[in-house]
C-alpha cells in the first residue's frame, strides 16, 4: 500500500469528454448522501453510473474534511485484493500481518471521508464485506457505490440510475437542446463531424434515434460516432435492422440489455477484422495500457491453440497501431494522456471489455493465449525495470508500474490460478522485489509471494528468490523471526543450487533482520564480510549498494561516525556513477546520521532533507518515516524544541499508518524518546503536547512539506464538526483503560508488548481526540463510560 492518508482533497477519475448534466439525479444523490452512509447507484451497463457518481462526489467533497477517495474495481478480479485496493486509494500503507480489512477499519476510525467504490457487481461479496466493516467500525466514513446489482446490506440506500429521458419525436421539439439524450448525441456527433448541431430539420430524427436506443448514454455515444460516415436516416435504418435481428434471437433478454447489445454488436460489425481481433484480445487487459502492451497482446504469430487470423497470422505491430487508432476513432477505446504528458494510454470501457471477452471466448484457447502473451509481456517489462532500477530512471519506473498495477495483478492471478503457469507467477512475484520493497507495496507483495510459494514447493532458484523477498518485506517485530528463517532458507537453497547472486541477496536480508533486531555488533560483522566480498556475478547493484548502507548504519548506531562516513562515501560514488536515487537517499540519511553522531547538526540537516526529497520521488514510506525521525533528532540538536515536537508527531503518524513500531528497535525508539524528553523540558508539558498534536494531525504530504520547509508552519487543524460521539481505535481504547487503572507509559508498553514511545503516542492521540489536557481526565472519562 502506500503513505498516510492525505487530509482533504478530491481524487476522482479524469474525464475525457464533457458531461451532459443530470441535475435531478445529482441532486437526489447528494440528498441521499446527506442522510445515508451507504448509497448504491444501480442500473444496467452503459447507463452512466460511474460518471454520475464522480460528479456527485465532486459536489459533496467540501462536506468531508478528509476528502473523497475513488476505488476503481473494474480491473480487479481477486476478492482478496478489494481491501488492499481501497487502502491504496486512501494512501494507507499497511506493513503488518493483520487482516487487511481490520487494519483498514482501524486507520479510518476517526476519519470523515467519502469512499467511492466503482463497478462492484463482479465482486459483490467482497465489496459488501468492506462496506459492512466500514459502516460498523467507523462513524465518519460514507460510501458511494456503483453496481449493476445491490450490495445487499440493510444499511444500503439504493438509487436507480435510469436511461436519459427522450422526448416524443412527433411532439414539440423546440427546446431540443434541453433534453439530455439529444444534447449528448449532438455533443458526441460534433466531435467527429465538426459543425453538427441540433436544428429544426434534424431534431425529430435525433429524438427517434435516441428513443430507439432507450436513452442509454453508452449506446447513444456509440451511435453518434457513426455520423462520421453515415447520415441520420442511414443510422436509423441500420440500427433498426440490427435491433430486429437481435430481438428475434433473444426474446427473453431485457429490452435495455437488448438495446445496448444491439448498439455494441453494431459497433463491432463496423470494425475491420483486425480491429475486431484487437478488441477481443485487448479485453484481457485490466485498467489502462499503452501501445507497447497492445502490440504484445495482439501482435506476433498466432498461438498454436488459436484459430488463425487473416492470412493465417495475427496482426503485425504496425497493423496493431492501425487497429488501435481505428478503435479510438470508433469510441471503442478511450485515449488518455499520461500525467507527465509523455505518451498516450488507452482503456476499454467495462461494458465493451466484457463484450470483447465474450467474443474472445468463442475461439477455443484464445483467451488463455492472450493472457499468456500479456503475462509474458509483463514479465519482460518487470525484468527490464529491475535491470534499470539502479539507474537514473527510477521515478519513471515507479510511475509506469503504478499505472500498470491492475495489469500486474491480472498477470499474477492468471499465473497462479492456471495449471502449469504457477512457476511463471513465482518468477514474476520475485522479479518485482524492488517495487514491493521501495514503492510502498509490501503488504501486497507478501500476498502474492505467499501464494506463489504455496503453489511452488519445488526447490528452485525462483523459490529461493521469493523466500528472501518475502523476508525483506517483514512487517512487524514478530515477523522478523519468520523473515530471518526464510532468508536463511533462501541462502541455503541458493547455495545448494549454485546461484551465488541469490545467496548474496539473501545475505543482505539476514543482515537487515539483525540490524533491526538491535543485534548491531552481529550486523556490523555480517556486513563487513559481505562488503569485503564485494558484488558477486549477477548480484543486483541496488542490493550491493544497500550492503554498504547497512554497514554504515551499523557503524553510526554504534557511535563509529568516521567509519560510517567513509563507507557512505563509497556508496555515494557507486550511486553517482549510475545516476541512482533510491539507494542514494539511504546513503544520505546515514551520512546525516553520522554527522548527528558527531553533533555536527548544520551539516546533518541538509543531507537529511536531500534524502527526504529523494524518498518522496519514489514514495518510499519506510524511508520517509526513518528520515523524519532523524530530522526531529537534528532539530533537537539545534535547540528547536517546537520543531522537534512537530516532527516527532509527524513521524509517529507515518509509523502509525504503516503499522510498524519501528520494528520494535531499541536503537530507533530510544533516539526518539531522547528527543521528546529534551523538547518536553524546553517547552513544558502543554506546549509540547500541542506541538506534537499539530504534527500528528498532518497527512504525509503535509508532513513532508513541513520537514522540507516548503511551507512555513503546519496548517491548523480543521475544526471538528462532531456528528457522532468520539470513537477511539481498538488500541487506543486498550490504552485508555490502562490509563484509568493508573498505569504509566512504560507499564502500558510492557502490558501491551509495545515500545514506550508508541504507548506515549497513543496517549497523546487520546488526549487530542477527547479534547483533554491530562491523564486524570482520561481516567474520569473511562470511568463514566463503564
Describe the fold and architecture.
By secondary structure, the chain is mainly alpha-helical. Among the domains are: 151 residues, 3-Layer(aba) Sandwich (Rossmann fold), CATH 3.40.50.300; 94 residues, no CATH class; 91 residues, Arc Repressor Mutant, subunit A; 101 residues, Tetratricopeptide repeat domain (Serine Threonine Protein Phosphatase 5, Tetratricopeptide repeat); 56 residues, Orthogonal Bundle (Arc Repressor Mutant, subunit A), CATH 1.10.10. 62% of the residues lie in helices and 5% in strands. The protein contains 37 helices and eight strands. The strands form two sheets. A six-stranded parallel beta sheet has the order 1-3-4-5-2-6, with helices on both faces. Helix 9 packs across helix 10. The longest helix has 23 residues. The protein is globular.
List the helices and strands and how they pair.
Elements: E1 10-11, H1 23-35, E2 38-42, H2 49-60, E3 68-72, H3 82-90, H4 100-108, E4 113-118, H5 124-137, E5 141-147, E6 156-160, H6 180-192, H7 203-212, H8 217-225, H9 232-249, H10 255-269, H11 273-282, H12 291-298, H13 317-329, E7 333-337, E8 344-348, H14 350-360, H15 366-388, H16 394-403, H17 405-417, H18 422-431, H19 433-438, H20 442-455, H21 461-472, H22 477-497, H23 500-516, H24 520-533, H25 541-557, H26 561-578, H27 582-597, H28 601-618, H29 621-637, H30 641-657, H31 666-683, H32 685-696, H33 700-707, H34 730-740, H35 745-752, H36 756-770, H37 775-785
Parallel strand pairs: 1-3, 2-5, 2-6, 3-4, 4-5
Antiparallel strand pairs: 7-8
Helix pairs in contact: 1-2, 4-5, 6-7, 6-8, 7-9, 8-10, 9-10, 11-13, 11-14, 12-13, 12-15, 15-17, 15-18, 17-18, 18-20, 18-21, 20-21, 21-22, 21-23, 22-23, 23-24, 23-25, 24-25, 25-26, 25-27, 26-27, 27-28, 27-29, 28-29, 29-30, 29-31, 30-31, 30-32, 30-33, 31-32, 34-36, 34-37, 35-36
Amino acid at each position: 500500500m502506500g503513505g498516510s492518508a492525505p487530509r482533504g482533497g478530491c481524487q476522482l477519475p479524469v474525464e475525457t469528454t464533457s458531461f451532459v448534466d443530470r441535475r435531478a439525479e445529482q441532486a437526489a444523490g447528494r440528498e441521499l448522501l446527506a442522510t445515508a452512509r451507504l448509497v448504491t447507484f444501480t442500473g444496467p451497463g452503459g447507463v452512466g453510473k460511474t460518471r454520475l457518481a464522480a460528479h456527485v462526489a465532486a459536489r459533496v467533497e467540501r462536506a468531508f474534511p478528509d476528502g473523497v477517495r475513488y476505488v476503481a474495481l473494474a480491473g480487479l478480479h481477486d476478492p482478496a485484493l478489494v481491501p488492499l485496493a481501497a487502502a491504496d486509494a486512501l494512501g494507507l500503507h499497511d506493513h503488518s500481518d493483520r487482516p487487511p480489512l481490520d487494519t483498514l477499519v482501524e486507520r479510518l476510525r476517526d476519519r470523515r471521508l467519502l469512499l467511492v467504490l466503482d463497478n462492484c457487481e463482479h465482486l459483490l461479496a467482497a465489496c459488501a464485506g468492506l462496506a459492512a466493516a466500514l459502516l460498523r467500525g467507523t462513524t465518519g466514513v460514507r460510501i458511494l457505490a456503483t453496481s449493476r446489482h445491490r450490495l445487499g446490506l440493510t444499511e444500503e440506500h439504493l438509487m436507480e440510475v435510469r436511461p436519459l429521458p427522450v422526448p416524443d419525436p412527433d411532439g414539440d421539439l423546440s427546446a431540443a437542446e434541453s433534453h439530455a439524450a439529444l444534447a449528448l448525441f449532438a455533443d458526441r456527433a460534433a466531435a467527429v463531424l465538426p459543425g453538427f448541431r441540433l436544428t429544426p430539420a434534424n431534431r425529430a430524427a435525433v429524438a427517434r434515434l435516441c428513443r430507439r436506443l432507450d436513452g442509454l448514454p453508452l449506446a447513444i455515444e456509440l451511435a453518434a460516432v457513426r455520423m462520421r460516415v453515415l447520415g441520420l436516416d442511414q443510422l436509423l435504418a441500420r440500427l433498426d435492422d440490427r435491433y430486429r435481428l437481435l430481438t428475434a434471437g433473444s426474446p427473453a433478454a431485457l429490452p435495455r440489455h437488448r438495446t445496448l447489445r444491439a448498439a455494441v454488436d453494431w459497433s463491432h460489425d463496423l470494425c475491420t477484422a483486425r480491429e475486431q481481433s484487437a478488441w477481443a484480445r485487448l479485453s484481457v487487459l485490466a485498467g489502462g495500457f499503452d501501445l507497447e502492451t497492445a502490440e504484445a497482446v495482439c501482435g506476433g504469430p498466432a498461438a498454436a491453440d488459436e484459430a488463425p487470423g487473416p492470412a493465417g497470422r495475427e496482426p503485425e505491430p504496425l497493423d496493431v497501431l492501425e487497429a488501435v487508432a481505428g478503435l479510438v476513432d470508433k469510441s471503442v477505446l478511450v485515449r488518455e494522456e499520461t500525467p507527465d504528458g509523455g505518451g498516450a494510454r488507452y482503456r476499454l470501457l467495462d461494458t465493451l471489455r466484457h463484450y470483447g471477452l465474450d467474443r474472445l471466448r468463442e475461439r477455443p484457447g484464445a483467451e488463455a493465449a492472450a493472457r499468456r502473451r500479456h503475462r509474458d509481456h509483463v514479465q519482460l517489462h518487470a525484468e527490464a525495470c529491475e535491470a534499470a532500477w539502479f539507474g537514473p530512471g527510477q521515478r519513471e519506473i515507479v510511475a509506469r508500474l503504478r499505472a500498470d498495477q491492475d495489469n500486474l495483478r491480472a498477470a499474477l492471478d492468471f499465473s497462479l490460478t492456471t495449471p502449469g503457469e504457477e512457476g511463471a507467477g513465482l518468477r514474476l512475484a520475485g522479479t518485482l522485489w524492488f517495487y514491493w520493497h521501495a514503492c510502498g507495496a509490501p503488504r501486497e507483495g507478501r500476498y502474492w509471494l505467499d501464494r506463489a510459494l504455496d503453489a511452488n514447493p519445488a526447490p528452485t532458484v525462483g523459490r529461493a528468490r521469493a523466500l528472501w523477498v518475502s523476508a525483506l518485506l517483514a512487517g512487524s517485530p514478530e515477523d522478523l523471526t519468520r523473515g530471518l528463517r526464510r532468508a536463511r532458507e533462501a541462502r541455503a537453497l541458493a547455495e545448494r543450487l549454485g546461484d551465488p547472486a541469490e545467496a548474496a541477496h539473501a545475505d543482505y536480508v539476514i543482515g537487515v533482520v539483525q540490524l533491526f533486531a538491535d543485534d548491531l555488533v552481529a550486523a556490523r560483522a555480517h556486513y563487513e564480510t559481505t562488503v569485503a566480498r564485494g558484488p558477486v556475478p549477477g548480484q543486483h547493484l541496488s542490493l550491493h549498494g544497500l550492503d554498504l548502507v547497512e554497514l554504515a548504519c551499523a557503524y553510526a548506531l554504534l557511535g563509529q561516525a568516521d567509519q560510517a562516513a567513509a563507507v557512505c562515501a563509497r556508496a555515494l560514488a557507486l550511486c553517482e556513477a549510475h545516476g541512482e536515487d533510491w539507494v542514494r537517499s539511504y546513503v544520505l540519511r546515514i551520512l546525516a546520521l553520522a554527522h548527528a553522531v558527531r553533533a555536527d547538526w548544520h551539516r546533518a540537516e541538509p543531507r537529511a532533507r536531500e534524502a527526504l526529497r529523494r524518498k518522496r520521488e519514489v514514495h518510499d514510506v519506510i524511508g520517509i518515516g526513518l528520515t523524519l525521525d532523524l530530522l526531529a533528532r537534528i532539530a533537537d540538536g539545534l535547540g528547536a524544541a517546537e520543531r522537534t515536537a512537530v516532527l516527532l508527531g509527524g513521524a509517529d503518524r507515518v509509523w502509525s499508518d504503516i503499522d510498524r513500531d519501528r520494528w520494535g528497535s531499541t536503537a530507533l525508539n530510544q533516539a526518539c524518546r531522547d528527543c521528546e524528553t529534551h523538547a518536553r523540558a524546553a517547552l513544558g508539558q502543554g506546549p509540547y503536547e500541542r506541538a506534537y498534536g499539530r504534527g500528528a494531525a498532518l497527512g504525509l504530504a503535509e508532513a513532508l512539506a513541513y520537514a522540507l520547509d516548503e511551507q512555513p508552519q503546519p496548517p491548523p487543524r480543521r475544526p471538528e464538526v462532531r456528528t457522532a460521539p468520539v470513537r477511539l481505535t481498538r488500541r487506543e481504547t486498550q490504552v485508555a483503560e490502562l490509563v484509568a487503572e493508573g498505569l504509566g507509559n512504560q507499564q502500558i508498553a510492557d502490558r501491551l508488548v509495545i515500545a514506550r514511545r508508541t504507548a506515549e503516542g497513543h496517549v497523546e492521540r487520546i488526549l487530542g481526540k477527547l479534547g483533554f489536557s491530562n491523564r486524570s481526565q482520561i481516567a474520569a472519562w473511562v470511568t463514566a463510560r463503564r
